[in-house]
Specification:
The complex is a heterodimer of chains A (about 450) and B (about 230). Chain A is an alpha+beta fold. In chain A, about 55% of the residues lie in helices and about 20% in strands. In chain A, helix 4 (about 215-265) packs antiparallel against helix 5. Chain B has about 230 residues and is α/β, with parallel strands linked by helices. Chain B has a five-stranded parallel sheet, sandwiched between helices. Chain B has a four-stranded antiparallel sheet with strand order 8-9-10-11, with helices on one face. In chain B, strands 12-14-13 form a three-stranded antiparallel sheet. In chain B, about 35% of the residues are buried. Classes of the chains: A alpha+beta (about 450), B alpha/beta (about 230). Chains A and B meet through helix 5, helix 6 and helix 7 of A and helix 4 and helix 8 of B.
Chain lengths: ~450, ~230
C-alpha cells in the first residue's frame, strides 16, 4: 500500500512552519494551564479553607453553647448582609428537620463526608452549584457550611472559552504563517530553479540573480554562480583542447594522405612508394606519441593516480633525472650543476614527479645553447618544498608566460617538440596540490615546481 | 620451434602480430575469443601468450590471465591493450602478466619485448660472469674487462651494459632500457638513451677490434659479437 503524500506536505517550508506552529500551540496550552491553575485553582483552595475555618468555628460554638445558640448564631450570620449572595448555612436537628438555613433540604446529601463536596442544591430558592462541608454534631444534628460556586463556574467557563479561542487563533496564524513562509521560500528558490532549467536546456551563460539582501539565499546563489563560472571555464577549456587536438591531428593526417595519394598516382613500381610508406609510418608514430602524451595529461588531470601517493624525496628525483640527462647535456656542451637542501620531501608519485622534472630539464637543455649553464636546486620550506631549474637561455617574455602550458602552444617552432611538455608539468604539479612558477633569471628562465611539504600523515 | 598463442579478436591486428612472429620463426596459433583462448591456453604448452585486454562478450583478458595463474601456469604472458593508464598497467602486472604493451605499437617494440620475455625465462639467476668476444663482465664485483684491460664504468652504465648482455643477440628498445635501467615509465622528449648508449659505446668499443654495441635501425640497440646478424630462433 502506498501512502499518498499531499503536495503541500512535500514543501519543507510548510512542514517547518507547521512544526513551529505546533510548538507555539503547545507552549500556549501549557501557559494557559498554568494560568488556570494559578487563578481558578488557587481561588477554590482559598474558599475551601474558609469553609473549613467557618465549620470549625461553628462546631466550637455548638460545643460550648449548644444547638439552640448555634441556630440563633446562624440566623444572625444569614441576616448580616455579608456574603449573602454566596454563603450557605443550614442546621438540621437530630430528627432530620431543618432548624435554620438557606438550603432546600434534600435528605440524601446529609450523609457526612470527610472532604468538602460539590452538590447541585437549591439555595434561597435558586438552583446552584455549591461546595459543602457536612458535619455531624454531637447531638445527632447535622451542620452544613458551604459556598455557592455559581459565579465561580461562570468565570471558569469564560477563562476556558477564551483559552480555546486564543489557541484557535494561534493555530490559524501559524498555518497562515506557514503558507506565507512557503511562498517566500518558493519564490527565492524558483529563481535558482529557473536558472537551472535554462542551463539544462543548454544556455550555459545563465546565472542565478543575486538579491541585494545578504541572506542565506544570496550566499547560496553566489556559490552556485561561482560553480557555474568554473564549469563554464572548464567547458571552454575542453572546447579549446578539442579544437587544438583536432587541428594538430588533422594536419599530419592530411600530410600523410597527400604523400600516399601522390605515390598511388605514380606507377605502382615507382621509387616514391617505399619512401611514402616510410614517411607515413614516421608521421603515424609521431601521432602516437602525441596521443600518448595527451592521454597521459588527461590521466594526470583525472586525479586517479593520487591513490598511489607516498613520500617522495625531491633530492632523489633531482639526482636521478640529472643523471639521466647528464650525457645529453655533456654532448651539447651545457654544464649541469646542482645544490640540494636537506631532505625536501613531498607526498606524491615518484614517476610523475621525475617526469615533470625531466620535462623541465629537457626544455632547459633544448633552449640553452652550447656553453650554457643549467642549475638545479631543491629547497625545503615550512609548508612547501621546491625543485627549480634555472637556465641562462633566452627565457620566456613576460607576455608569453600565461600562455605557456596551454596544450600545443609552442614558443619556438624551430625546436623539435609538440608543445605538450609544460602542459604535462602543470598537470602533474596540480595533481600534487602544487604549482609551476616561471620567473626571470636575468638572463634565462627559472622554472620552479612548488609542492606541499610531506607532513608525515 | 617456439610456440605462441595469440588471444585477440581484432582480425587485422592478430594477423599483423602473427605474420611478424612467423617471420621471426615462431609457430603461431590464434584464438578469437575468451572461451577459445582459455581452452587452448590450458590445452597445450606454449612458450608465450599474447593476450588482448578487451575481448568479445565483455570478457576481460585479465580474467583469462588470472585463471591461468590460478592453475599454476607460468607461461610468459604479454598483454596488449588500448587501456594505457598507469593503473590499468598496474592491474595487469598484479594479475600476473610479464609485460604490458599499449596499442597502437610498433611491431619492433613487440618483437623486442617478446624476445626479452622468452630469454628471461631461459636465463638462470645465478650467473656470475659473462663473456662476449674479448669482453669479460663480472656481475658480482661489477667489473668489466676488455682484452684484459679494466674499463671503469659508472653504476648506471654498468646496469645498461648488463641489461644489453642479458639480451645479447636481441634488439632492445629505448623504452625497455628506460624501464629496466632507470625504472622510469615515461618517454623523455629528447632521446636521452641514445646519448647514454653512445657514451657507453665510447668506453666499451673504442680501440676495440670488434664493436659489441650496435644500433638497430627503427628498433633500438643490440649487443652482439657477430655484428647485426639476423635474429634467429633459439
Amino acid at each position: 500500500m502506498t501512502i499518498v503524500v499531499p503536495r503541500w506536505w512535500t514543501s519543507i517550508a510548510f512542514r517547518q512552519a507547521l512544526i513551529y506552529a505546533a510548538l507555539v500551540v503547545l507552549t500556549m496550552t501549557v501557559l494557559l494551564a498554568v494560568f488556570y491553575q494559578q487563578t481558578v485553582g488557587v481561588w477554590q483552595q482559598r474558599i475551601d479553607h474558609q469553609i473549613d475555618a467557618t465549620t470549625q468555628r461553628l462546631v466550637d460554638y455548638f460545643e460550648h453553647k449548644g444547638a439552640a445558640a448555634l441556630a440563633t448564631h446562624i440566623t444572625g450570620l444569614l441576616g448580616d448582609g455579608i456574603d449573602s449572595d454566596t454563603e450557605v448555612y443550614t442546621l438540621v436537628d437530630p430528627a432530620g428537620h431543618k432548624v435554620v438555613g438557606n438550603l432546600a433540604l434534600e435528605p440524601d446529601i446529609l450523609a457526612p463526608t470527610r472532604d468538602i463536596v460539590e452538590h447541585r442544591v437549591v439555595r434561597a430558592g435558586r438552583s446552584s452549584e455549591s461546595r459543602l462541608r457536612i458535619t455531624h454534631l454531637g447531638d445527632g444534628g447535622v451542620l452544613v457550611v458551604g459556598r455557592d460556586m455559581q459565579d465561580q463556574r461562570e468565570l471558569d467557563r469564560l477563562v476556558r472559552r477564551a483559552s480555546l479561542l486564543s489557541a484557535l487563533v494561534t493555530l490559524l496564524m501559524a498555518v497562515a504563517g506557514a503558507l506565507f513562509l512557503r511562498r517566500q521560500l518558493e519564490q527565492r528558490i524558483s529563481a535558482i530553479r529557473q536558472t537551472a532549467v535554462r542551463i539544462e536546456r543548454g544556455d550555459l551563460a545563465q546565472r542565478v540573480p543575486v538579491s541585494q539582501q545578504q541572506d542565506e539565499f544570496a550566499r547560496l546563489s553566489r556559490d552556485i554562480n561561482a560553480m557555474l563560472d568554473r564549469i563554464h571555464a572548464l567547458m571552454e577549456g575542453v572546447r579549446h583542447v578539442s579544437n587544438t587536438i583536432a587541428h594538430n591531428i588533422r594536419t599530419p593526417l592530411s600530410r600523410i594522405l597527400a604523400r600516399l595519394r601522390t605515390a598511388q598516382a605514380e606507377r605502382p613500381q615507382a621509387a616514391g612508394l617505399p619512401e611514402a610508406v616510410a614517411f607515413a609510418i614516421g608521421e603515424i608514430e609521431d601521432l602516437n606519441v602525441v596521443f600518448d602524451k595527451l592521454l597521459q595529461i588527461a590521466e594526470v588531470e583525472s586525479g586517479a593516480r593520487r591513490q598511489g601517493f607516498g613520500p617522495v624525496s625531491l633530492n632523489a628525483i633531482a639526482i636521478n633525472v640529472l643523471e639521466l640527462y647528464d650525457a645529453v647535456a655533456e654532448a651539447k656542451g651545457v654544464t649541469l650543476t646542482h645544490t640540494l637542501d636537506a631532505d625536501p620531501v613531498t607526498a606524491g608519485d615518484g614517476d610523475l614527479l621525475a617526469n615533470a622534472m625531466a620535462n623541465l630539464l629537457d626544455n632547459a637543455i633544448k633552449y640553452t645553447d652550447g656553453g650554457g649553464a643549467i642549475h638545479v636546486d631543491t629547497r625545503r620550506g615550512a609548508a612547501a618544498v621546491t625543485i627549480s631549474v634555472r637556465d641562462n637561455g633566452p627565457g620566456i617574455p613576460q607576455t608569453e608566460r600565461s600562455r605557456v602550458g596551454t596544450r600545443f602552444h609552442r614558443l619556438d617552432r624551430s625546436v623539435p617538440g609538440w608543445g605538450l611538455g609544460l602542459a604535462s608539468v602543470i598537470a602533474i604539479a596540480r595533481l600534487h596540490g602544487g604549482d609551476l612558477q616561471l620567473a626571470d633569471a636575468n638572463p634565462g628562465l627559472i622554472a620552479r615546481l612548488v609542492l606541499p611539504a610531506f607532513d608525515g600523515s | 620451434m617456439r610456440r605462441c598463442l595469440i588471444i585477440e579478436d581484432d582480425a587485422d591486428n592478430a594477423r599483423y602480430i602473427a605474420d611478424g612472429l612467423r617471420e621471426l620463426g615462431w609457430f603461431v596459433s590464434l584464438a578469437r575469443n575468451g572461451a577459445d583462448g582459455i581452452e587452448r591456453a590450458t590445452g597445450a604448452i606454449w612458450d608465450l601468450i599474447v593476450l588482448d585486454r578487451m575481448l568479445p562478450n565483455e570478457v576481460d583478458g585479465l580474467a583469462i590471465l588470472k585463471t591461468l595463474r590460478g592453475m599454476g601456469q607460468s607461461t610468459p604472458v604479454l598483454i596488449l591493450s588500448a587501456l594505457s593508464a598507469t593503473d590499468e598497467r598496474v592491474r595487469g602486472l598484479q594479475a600476473g602478466c610479464d609485460d604490458y604493451l599499449t596499442k597502437p605499437f610498433a611491431f619492433s617494440e613487440l618483437a623486442a619485448r617478446v624476445e626479452a620475455l622468452v630469454r628471461r625465462s631461459q636465463f638462470g639467476k645465478d650467473v656470475r660472469e659473462m663473456r662476449v668476444a674479448d669482453m669479460r663482465v663480472d656481475l658480482i664485483a661489477r667489473r668489466v674487462e676488455r682484452s684484459g684491460r679494466t674499463i671503469p664504468l659508472q653504476p648506471r652504465e654498468f646496469r645498461l651494459l648488463a641489461y644489453l648482455l642479458f639480451h645479447q643477440g636481441r634488439a632492445v628498445t629505448r623504452t625497455m632500457l628506460l624501464e629496466a635501467v632507470w625504472d622510469y615509465r615515461f618517454d623523455p622528449q629528447t632521446n636521452v638513451i641514445d646519448v647514454h648508449i653512445s657514451r657507453l659505446r665510447n668506453k666499451i668499443d673504442r680501440d676495440a677490434a670488434v664493436p659489441l654495441i650496435h644500433t638497430v635501425r627503427g628498433v633500438g640497440y643490440m649487443l652482439s659479437a657477430d655484428g647485426l646478424a639476423p635474429q634467429t630462433s633459439a
